[in-house]
Design goal:
Order of helices and strands of chain A: EHEHEHEHEHEHEHHEHEEEEEEHEH
Protein name (chains A, B, C, D, E, F): Gfo/Idh/MocA family oxidoreductase
CATH architecture of the largest domain in chain A: 2-Layer Sandwich
Organism (chains A, B, C, D, E, F): Nibrella saemangeumensis
Radius of gyration of chain A: 20 Å
CATH superfamily of the largest domain in chain A: Dihydrodipicolinate Reductase, domain 2
Shape of chain A: globular
Oligomer: homohexamer
CATH class of the largest domain in chain A: Alpha Beta
Chain lengths: 338, 338, 338, 338, 338, 338
């Protein structure tokens, strides 16, 4: 019998395409016992599609009847906090979708309760599972980068305001490009600096294109209902003088449709993450090291495994509750600075 | 008889390769009457090479004997202020090499005296004369960019710490990569925002590689005598929420030997400066506009002409004394923030 | 209940792969009620495959039993005229495959009867539905091209004589490369000139390779049964001095396997259609405008919709009966000139 | 003592840069004895520069004093006929710049007189001397092309209206792009068809851009003084059904700055001239034959030698008087058709 | 009723993916009557999957019950000899997987018995069926290569030691890269020289990487169980002074993941096989002939047909028993030389 | 006064373009005192051109009058031995052009006499001075390659039979491509294996193209006077099982005009020399290390310095007399094997 009984909260595409398939590839470790969505029809359809025994609209009923010990939270951002608090109170480990919450306070509460209850709370920031990121951490640990002092992180779309879902709704999502896209590369950048909290944050947000409308590459959006930032830039300065430059956009008049990368500059070597390239000196000459045969993994599956490892007290590189609180703190300070 | 009588102060390569040849292409407008250098041998050699009648070690003697009405200042940075003040006091228009001075106070003094004496003081920031920059300004004026709200500006070298001159000497140069390279792209970025002064500046400077030594691509430098920053990053935030991200380096573990560019993002269009590309919408579709036949001009000659136009009260796009003061203010605040 | 009851005449691949699937994507608008082919076995197989209720060898019987109000004609070219005349006589709108007919006289007859009976007759020239052509027409309407005065249109294959079907049979097809391939780009070129009839036509046809045989890239053909042109070139001159250069081939000793494009030269801008590029002046400089994110549509579906729009009196860019008559006139004059 | 005594008529750049240097590389064969220009100052300057003994404004005087037996004519087009007739009357062989003359009648007169006087008259169409053209003719002679039935020839500039000289003056030049550029590729195309006279010619000329003005890539031109065609397209049809498509422009809204090429289609092989590629079948498969090591020759020198060979009755591939008459006939018929 | 009744011996992937599907595409010619594997479960599963009537663990029983007249041998290399001898003794034609056997003596025995019994024995070296090889042989036959005097043949993998099967087991496979990969290109090279036996062979084998371990690109292997060569290089010299350079590897510190090619140098032309390019002279100039439209065939199917053609006494390019004996002789001499 | 007095023996292009300019860049170290050539006119012209005081036809006279202590030998190969023996007998250090001599015996004699007389004899194999080779040796010394076990070395020309000089004269040069080109890469390959003598050598030489004639890329050669090999291939096997594959040609039906490279395979890393790339593992992944900023040095100057260093007993990487003897031994054994 598997160690874990998992419940899914949230009936959207991220549950359907990412979390349920990942969990179902681990039948020896975990059983999915229920799907829970405020819209019972959606919950039921999802449960049927994936052969999950139970569907609920009411989470409390789900906890009573199904006794899960693991919960995966796939709801709009505004529900991350309440559902996580409830799950932790029910004694469940929690894997929560990103961003951690709407505010730093929420994220700190969630981390406190997890710590207090001796439970694992983790966030689904799967880029940590790419081969590129694993290689970066290995290069860092082997001293190939020396001291890391500057990072450029960006996640840009040219006209990628989603034409579906709640992405432009401020109340439900808490923000736009930074909450949805920037959070991924910001998490990696903070990892590279050992998740220190920045001493200073200065940033700005924009909504020119979102509010003006135009040709979309991810469907058409309604400029009148556009309430979030379509772009955000920020500079983070750390007490050891390290710095991060962050840029993220749903919409920006730039060349590439989609562009996501990090550049990590250290005293002995610098890395461009995609495709992974290490700029350094070898045998006394300037050298560029390429890794032409890095594989593509199923990063959702790997992150799900990393979460379940953490639940079992095994080493894991999943984004922790404490890291999530720092991450939300940076996001919040960026919005405040703007 | 030409309108202007020019004196050159400083006997180094920038006088020899840039300013004297440019002035001598304008014989109907200007005569070079003297070269002045603290090292009289250098002054004399330079004068002989270019058929300039007089050479001096003492500037005061030069003013007495030659009565110039235009002075070009090509000295180490620490001498920009004293020589400019002297020249303005002598009633001369001044074209001063970049950066304007060592501090914002110096630059403001210089601007005050120029204004007070009704003279033209300008700085030799020649990238303004590239066809690309002229086209950018035309696109801006025609409304093709809409409102400009974010600019990325960088001037990076991988291992380009000069192995000659005073570039790593703090007292003479006042700083490193920002003073020597970053100043060019910062000037353009500020131009694009109508030279507003930023509300906030946050930045950092680094010297890991400069102090550690390594393989150089512009000669070999002495890591023990390395006193300036080898890299600098900064974020400028303006009261209208526009922002500039600035990166500059003499040495950085990055791919390209040399990389200099600006990206200028506006509400209606975005531009990458080199090669000039405009990202916008045309006929309802996302469009990239390329200009395959932009010419390469002699930008020093054009900047010298622009300076002389300003001296004559004609319209000119040369960097003014007031702009130079703002520029030094930003540089100084960046160093203070670091 | 759908507005239209459609019958398919002709049981070949174009019915199977293009027209039936397109119509079946529009279930609210149209029902396919019958398939009709001189070979009843083919008709029945096709009907079964697509769940179409009836199959006929005899069109008259089909009209009696099924009362369609729309007919799609997918037969060899020689049958376009008789089947279209019959369908119009039966009060049906007609979407006829290209080329319109064997002769200009046939095409004019067909247009007359359609007009007389108040019915829509249209030809299936789907390249009009590409995003590129829509963008071209929008650029034209916005004045970005100025006056269009010269067009190069080509549709070339290196060794693409089809090794199946009737493509080399003169009696059934009326011609070769011009009838099958050139007709597409000629239609677009004429559209760009508002479908004026040319004042003069001069052209030639060739059959060297078709009659000699050789290595084929679309199967092997029988050189002894090769009765049509393998290549055709022509020049069309219009009363306003505009001109079209047309080249088309089944077989030609050229580089590309397949090469289909139009270049449209106007006084203010010129366009290369695939990939769409606009050559013009922007901000006083020569500029090339690229559209990197044009999508690929299902052009058959769009043309079927355009035809049904026309049937309902809505605006439509489908090739009309009158345009088809001009098109056949140009083709006929080209053959006569050769 | 050299066989030939040459006089140069015309004092412009083509004499200075092309003809005089070529002749002076052949000192064993030819002596330049005089330069003649209506502007005596120009004639004298040119003679001095190249160490030519005599300079004249009056050709008759030149003939009397210098007794040349070879004349090279480098004047504006309108003077080709009178100077050639005079030279032939004086018993001189003539190498005349292209185009042959202003009209077909002039060119026929010139050919008649040459034939009558037993003298060589040739035109300076140097593309015949490229390695590519020599290889084309060799491939043709070896039967690698089979029967040639279609040729596309173009010589296009995007914005190459010369900002100097008489190029836009109708009276002096007789025409624009066709007379100056198209003539080169038309000559080659006719060569490939053994210089048969076409049965029919249909063409058009345009002047939209020339008259409207705009950004120039060969200096700035005056749109108000623009009297010639900026573009010309034509179709030539031959009695054996072969055809030529010709396009030429000083200005056209196309991609390339300059684009000059021929495609020559034969029954066994097709050639793209620059870079030379032969499309054919080898060992039963479709093959493209590239010639990566073709050399670049001094084509003016080779054409001068070819002319002098012809003067000596040796085999020569220079453009003959009779070919020049056919060439002018085609040009004239194109203009008449437009 | 089909001419041939085939039995498959060996139940691995090569039977499943290559031989059975190829035979089943030829139902008019051959029936598969049985699968035989020492592991009866595997045999049965394979038979079921492909609807083959019988499965056996015991080959003798299979011959008794099923009376095949064709046998395909897909076992580990060490069983090629015993199973082939048995099949030939049973009067069956044999298609045996490569390499022919473990030793030259085995291969000669097999050829002797086949000749003696009047049966066809052939080896499955399918690269002979590529369009490239067919074209090479045609070029050779047409004299386009002149006399072939040197061949470079290589089949290299960077880290392609298979992580499955018996590939690193010396007893079962007889060798490593040469037996598994090099054999393919060596067969082609020998073909090009009309399968002459070399006068001298000099070579070496290596196992540095195989025994050291490392990152694999075809799964992970066990360095402790690595018993074969990971790389082999050899030089073959023939009595007519022709030579072959052979290189093959499972693992080598080279650039490409996989690299397989032949260069064949002749007195009149040289060929690089993939992509096929012929370097020669055409019309007196150095020429490279490319064949951009060579198709990809199903080379297993073609080789199976070639084998069955040989069984029927038809012309065939399959690798014969005699050629297989020469091939094994070269392999054995290479190992002895190492 | 400089330490060395140098005499040049041989009046050809290698003296004029390589050795004299290199020596004259080292005026503090060496004076050129005489040029000696059997053709006194050539000697005198060369001396005059380079301001060398004396010219001789008779070497003995030169030694008497000029007392050099360094001799550079630039004669045809057949004179390397006699002139070197004479120079050593005169007490001079000798830098001799490659190849060392005509036979291994000659080279051993030369090495013996140098050793006996305590003089430096070195050969001018300048590829050792490339940055690439220096980096290779550094990588080898740092253990980045592990144990080197296979090397591919080639120096190929497609049609580079020199149309001048004695290159095709067997008596004067001793051989063709191997003596002139292959010797360079063979020297490097032997260096990489610490200049061990091979245990076995197997090779062949060819002259098909040289004797047949054809299109040349380095002038035209006379096929009737072609006495040497136009191509040579060989395999060298060493007692530690390392191996070298060598290919060299003046003429070969291959793609590139000129192609010169080494691939050096070791147990830990492999190198392609031009452009330098190291294939290895980094941080547990397969990695390719590029060195994009390697400089181009004046390799003749560096080799001349290395020779003079050796003369002074300093460390030097110049090719020694002993190495030259091994090199000639390999060349001789290759010719014998062919």
């Amino acid at each position: 019998m598997p160690l874990f009984r998992a419940a899914i909260i949230g009936g959207g595409s991220i549950a359907d395409k990412n979390h349920i398939p990942a969990l179902q590839q681990l039948p020896d470790l975990v059983d999915i016992v229920a799907v829970c969505s405020r819209d019972l029809t959606k919950a039921r359809a999802l449960a049927d599609k994936h052969n999950i025994p139970h569907a609920f609209a009411d989470a409390a009923a789900m906890y009573r009847q199904c006794s899960p010990n693991v919960v995966v939270i796939c709801t709009p951002n505004s529900l991350h906090h309440p559902y996580t608090m409830q799950a932790l109170a029910q004694g469940c480990h929690v894997l929560c979708e990103k961003p951690p919450a709407l505010t730093a306070t929420e994220a700190r509460d969630m981390a406190s309760l997890a710590r207090q209850n001796g439970l694992t709370l983790a966030y689904n920031l799967q880029l940590r599972q790419t081969r590129e990121w694993e290689l970066l951490m290995r290069c860092k640990d082997e001293g190939r980068l020396g001291e890391i002092y500057h990072i450029k992180a960006h996640f840009l779309r040219r006209r990628g305001i989603p034409g579906w879902g709640y992405f432009t709704n401020k109340a439900m999502q808490g923000g736009g490009a930074l909450m949805d896209l920037g959070v991924h590369v910001l998490d990696l950048a903070l990892c590279a600096l050992d998740y220190a909290a920045p001493a200073q944050v200065l940033g700005n947000t924009y909504d020119f294109i979102g509010k003006a409308g135009g040709r979309g590459l991810m469907g058409a959006w309604d400029p009148k209902a556009f309430e979030v930032e379509d772009a955000c830039t920020a500079y983070l300065s750390f007490s050891n003088k390290a710095s991060i430059m962050l840029s993220t956009s749903f919409a920006l008049n730039t060349q590439a449709d989609k562009d996501r990368n990090l550049e990590i500059y250290g005293s002995r070597g610098g890395v461009k993450l995609f495709p992974f390239t290490l700029h350094t000196e070898v045998a006394g000459e300037l050298a560029d090291i390429h890794f032409p045969y890095l594989e593509q993994d199923d990063i959702q599956l790997k992150n799900t495994i990393a979460f379940l490892d953490a639940c079992q007290g095994k080493p894991s590189n999943v984004c922790t509750a404490e890291q999530g609180a720092v991450l939300m703190d940076v996001i919040e300070r960026t919005y405040q600075s703007a």
